[in-house]
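For the sake of transparency, this paper describes our internal protein records without simplification. Because each token names a local backbone shape, the row as a whole describes the fold. One such record is reproduced below, unchanged from the form in which we store it.
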Amino acid sequence: MPVDEPTQDDPDGKGLVATIYDQLTRDIVGGQLAPGEKLSEPAIARRFDASRAPVREAIRRLQELGLVTYIVNQGVRVAEPTADEFLSLLAVREALEGMAARLAATGMNDDERRALQTLVEAHSEEIARDHHGAYLQSDPDGDFHRRIAIGSRNPLLSELLCDQLYPRLKLCRRLHATVPGRGREAWREHIRIVDAIVHRDGEMAEILMRRHVQSAKTALLEAMASASRAKG
């Protein structure tokens, strides 16, 4: 028997909705649910031993986030972002992450600065294993950008980046090619951003972060052009 949404510990059923939403988000971003794949409400309900109501609410939240889309006569499917949508996300990201870096330069405490520095230095091992590979930072808790967003000490900015923008960016990254060697260059850019934050130079941190995102955009455009030439 499916569990009812309201329980003594969770009278509004919000905990169950959050559980379903969080797991489906991880499945989509991680590739367990493929782009274009249909989401079956009955199957999801059976998976979580839940009724259809919390499943529908979780899917509604995913749709608001842009991770799933509703197609007439086809139902709800995992989103397949286009390159143009990816570029639009990068434009928003440049502005928001530039602001986050500037605020983090003064908002982070000394322990957070040292932890960020240690994190980026540790990423050198990932780069050393594959000089021409991507630099995806698959662990959300160890993500460079997420830590800076939180370090901005601006709850709204952090929410926009961590909860709304980053999941969509990760989905886009899995659908669009990366330029060989971009991972190593991105890591070097991270090193320079950290140095500005450690020295509490907010203006420089914002400039470097904006350049970093602009470089990602340039890399995407190069990959698109290369793919177009290969087809033509």
User: Anything to note?
Assistant: Residues 149 and 155 are 9 Å apart (CA to CA). The longest helix spans residues 202-231. The mean pLDDT is 86. Strands lie at 68-71, 75-78.
